[in-house]
Amino acid sequence: MASATVSGTQVHFVNAGSGSPALVLLHAFPLHAGMWDAQIAAFSRHRRVVAPDLPGFGSTPPLPGSGAPAMADFAALVAGLIEHLGIGPAVVGGLSMGGYVAFALLRDRPDLVSGVVLADTRAGSDSVEVADRRTAQQAQVAERGTADLVETMVGSLLSDETRARRPDVVERARTLMSVNPGAGIIAALGAMRARPDATAELATIAMPALVVVGEHDGPSPPAEARTMTDALPDARLEVIEGAGHLSNLEAPEAFNRALDTFLSRF
Ligand code: MLT
């Protein structure tokens, strides 16, 4: 893994391949850049692929300061990394929380983005129920550590099919989640809870967009992905058969096919 100091934070990131536009991949909660291994292996053959560990995940430390970070702070770090590497404008892909970061980047630094992949994510902000669940999860992690949260997430993010038939993927997801420290997880839960609603902004995202969703995605269901696709001026929807919320891990070949077709536009 490479690293660079961006705004005082030592950001660790996978930095593979060459060729532009670069593909920047933003991971889901509570995983890290390792969730993109299958995409990095496939796409770094023809272009630069950069996948950062977002603050508090993998090898990147939480953002400095005592206040709770916002999605905009995560996006500022990604913007700083794109500028530091001189790879903008790039195609930016985010899965779930990575998509929330992509929305914040599009809001604050659209000049750094030439195309966007929104995978298993949602434009809307948290419902009261989801916000309350995040608050309870913060308390749970603070009191008991991350193990229970990880098991809950393994249960809710993967499809029934993946859990029944793909023990290797279940174990990989568990490992990707288990290594992250509680402090980063608590901070990200707060940042997700406070994120603004991006629904009204969809119509202004004029660049090419790919919306990807697992057929059985519970947290960000296909119906929401369809609504988001309809609201975007230049978007295509790909539904990944048999996959749940972590569609790139659960069905890497289908996910990569969709991404490859999209990238051929650049
Ligand atoms: C994720 O996969 O990043 C999370 O499910 C996002 C969320 O909790 O909203």
Can you tag this structure with a few keywords?
single chain, 266 residues, alpha/beta, 11 helices, binds D-malate
Note down, in words, how this protein is organized:
With 266 residues, the chain is an alpha/beta fold. Helices cover 44% and strands 17% of the residues. The chain is built from 11 helices and 8 strands. The protein has helices at 37-43, 71-85, 97-108, 128-144, 147-157, 160-165, 167-178, 182-193, 222-231, 247-250, 252-263; strands at residues 2-6, 9-16, 23-26, 49-52, 90-95, 113-119, 209-214, 235-240. The protein has an 8-stranded mixed β-sheet with strand order 1-2-4-3-5-6-7-8, sandwiched between helices. β1 (2-6) and β2 (9-16) form a beta hairpin. The mean pLDDT is 97. Bound molecules: D-malate. Residues 28-29, 96-97, 157, 192, 219, 245 line the site of D-malate. D-malate binds next to loops.
Secondary-structure content class: alpha/beta
The radius of gyration over CA amounts to 17 Å
Taken as a percent bin, the fraction of beta residues is: 15-25%
Which regions have little confidence, pLDDT < 50, spanning 5+ residues?
none
Query: Tally the helices: what do you get?
Result: 11
**Helices and strands, in N-to-C order?**
EEEHEHEHEHHHHHEHEHH
Number of strands: 8
Arrangement of strands in the largest sheet: 1-2-4-3-5-6-7-8
Mean pLDDT: 97
Overall shape: it is globular
Beginning-to-end CA distance, first to last residue: 27 Å
Helix content: 40-55%
What small molecules does the structure contain? Answer: D-malate
The largest sheet is: 8 strands, mixed
* Quaternary assembly: single chain
